[in-house]
Design goal:
143 residues, mainly beta, Rieske Iron-sulfur Protein, 4-stranded antiparallel sheet, 3-stranded antiparallel sheet, 1 helix
């Protein structure tokens, strides 16, 4: 009786483990781009990221750009700036104002760049998150 119970417990433990990639929601609107960018906080261009409550936007990476937000100097977020509820097109590129990313499409979707949640408009997807690591004065964002 102990052997079947042991095997059952092992099977449950093995199937309950998952990688970070398996927990990500597959959004059919946004392709998975593979990129890696590094920001050196010692450079004047990234000075805002040294202070909590500030963000940095670049349109050179990601689908339509990437926004990085400093929560408290130990926690940062990084999100894609293409509206996740539209396939990439001219109006799906978002602009950041404060902690809000706004879509230019007629539905007027707005997202919180701290949590990634949809705050106004229609849609089932939240912002596409990117991985982020800080090592000393370097921040690395990648997918």
């Amino acid at each position: 009786m102990k052997k079947p119970l042991f095997y059952l417990l092992c099977a449950i433990l093995l199937t309950s483990c998952s990688s970070d990639d398996q927990n990500r929601i597959n959004n059919p609107n946004l392709p998975d781009l593979h990129f890696r960018m590094q920001l050196n906080l010692d450079l004047p261009e990234y000075n805002n990221l040294q202070f909590p409550g500030n963000s940095y936007v670049t349109y050179n990476y990601g689908i339509r750009g990437v926004v990085i937000y400093n929560i408290d100097n130990t926690q940062y977020t990084a999100f894609e700036l293409s509206d996740p509820n539209h396939p990439p097109n001219d109006c799906s590129a978002m602009e950041v104002e404060g902690i809000t990313a706004k879509c230019n499409c007629e539905d007027g979707n707005e997202y919180n760049i701290i949590t990634g949640e949809l705050t106004e408009g229609d849609g089932q997807y939240s912002l596409k998150p990117y991985r982020l690591e800080r090592r000393g004065n370097m921040i690395e964002i990648y997918n």
